[in-house]
Automatic annotation (TrEMBL):
Compartment(s) where it occurs, according to its Swiss-Prot or TrEMBL record: Cell membrane
Keywords, in A-Z order: Cell membrane, Membrane, Transmembrane, Transmembrane helix, Transport
InterPro entries per UniProt: MFS_dom, MFS_sugar_transport-like, MFS_trans_sf, Sugar_transporter_CS
GO-annotated cellular components: plasma membrane
Bilayer topology annotation: Multi-pass membrane protein
Main subcellular location: membrane
Single GO MF descriptor: transmembrane transporter activity
Name of one Pfam family that matches: Sugar_tr
Database matches in CDD domains: MFS_ShiA_like
Domain Major facilitator superfamily (MFS) profile: 10-503
Species annotation: Sediminibacterium ginsengisoli
Lineage: Bacteria, Pseudomonadati, Bacteroidota, Chitinophagia, Chitinophagales
Record's protein name: Predicted arabinose efflux permease, MFS family
TM segment ranges: 7-28, 48-70, 82-100, 106-126, 147-170, 190-209, 244-264, 284-303, 310-327, 406-434, 446-466, 478-496
Amino acid sequence: MKQSKGIWKIIGASSLGTLIEWYDFYIFGSLATVLANQFFPKANPTAALLSTLATFAAGFIVRPFGALVFGRLGDLIGRKYTFLLTLVLMGGSTFAIGLIPGYDTIGFAAPVLVLLLRLVQGLALGGEYGGAATYVAEHAPEHRRGFFTSWIQTTATLGLFVSLGVILITRHALDADQAKSIAKFNDWGWRIPFLVSILLVVVSIYIRLKMSESPLFSKLKAEGKTSANPLKESFGKKDNLKMVLLALFAATMGQGVVWYTGQFYAQSFIENVCKVDFDQSRTILIWAILFATPFFVVFGSWSDKIGRKWIMLAGMLLAVVTYKPLFNKLITLSSVTERTLEKKSTDVGMYASAGITDTFRVSTVKHIYTDATVMTTITKDTVYASGKATVKPVTTVVKQLNTRDYWTMVGIVFIMILYVTMVYGPIAAFLVELFPTRIRYTSMSLPYHIGNGVFGGLTPFIATLLTTIHTTDPLAGLIYPIVIAGICFVIGVLYLKTKPEQLSEAV
């Protein structure tokens, strides 16, 4: 009973800190559209969004370097203090992003500063996950390792869930009037979710300071058997390097693209391709996450009984086969082509731009359909100012789904996140079991963060870029995750063992 209580305390403390780090990391992606307008030139909205997604992706690209730096520290000095350091770096960087002035104030210094802080975030996250997963796994009994480590696996999705919730709460709390609350949030309210993270980090640091070191690592250290050079042992010896490459190309690469397609790209697709409004696009994801999250534990626990391999590979295969029809259904649900128009209203207003003499005309056309779907088209028209040329009109389309289509869309995203739980729930236990204690932090962190950080983290950017190249095919972005997951599935089927043989401590 005492041992059981102890493991839950360990899981709680590790998970809270890891959840906060994921929150800090993903708050940027959740606000990509708003941040594009804040930190990049407004002349080309598509280029600004792609620049923001590229900055978001930069944090993923450096995660493998964080895995090397902090993985080495974790195998040299211990798990506890290493992922305590990563928490401080992550929290400080997130807080600082909330303080950076916009592009209109400091010009190109704004995106440069944001990029630098995203790189620090990526380095920190590269050290956090491996430490938390290793720490929990080294406390868990072997026959329940999948179950206990799956709780750590929930933190990435829950971090996204919390980030979306904080954004929506902040936005609605700024003003009772919807139009004013949106304007305030886009102007300065977006900073609040970044700034409040510092409070969460302080709480987590306090909890983690009270944690003890991993018993397996403590035993190795007491016996003088810790690795003198974790990097050399992990990647300089053939047997271990083979396991690192197998973990990457047969598991984490496919897992990464499934994770980011089912959650981040799905949200971006619903907002930017389907044109579903800000609140609905985020609450759709929130509900789907809420319903799907328990399945991380279900599949993690199940992997203790039947093995990790086939659960993870089944999730990849389902994604490959069904992504196109699922995303196509999202387009169908948001289309107004087959709907019957009930009424149409038009409102035109003239507005003065803040601080200058320019004025512009905003035309709002609202289409209300018989099934309660609403489509609003907003056109910002000609700017009038002495000596200035006419500015090209900018048109924005926003749709509000009726209740039936809204919940159908929730169901579709739930299915995609269910695939996420299949590939992600068992993977911490899978990675831990591949490598010996003395080099585990380093060895498991690198393939995980290349698979997730590079292959997975680039998914929203590459998928969005593909849709700008193949403009007639809104599903063109799915080529990337389908190909990557497909390759990983084939390699996994051929080379992964159902029960991996862990390398000995003498490796």
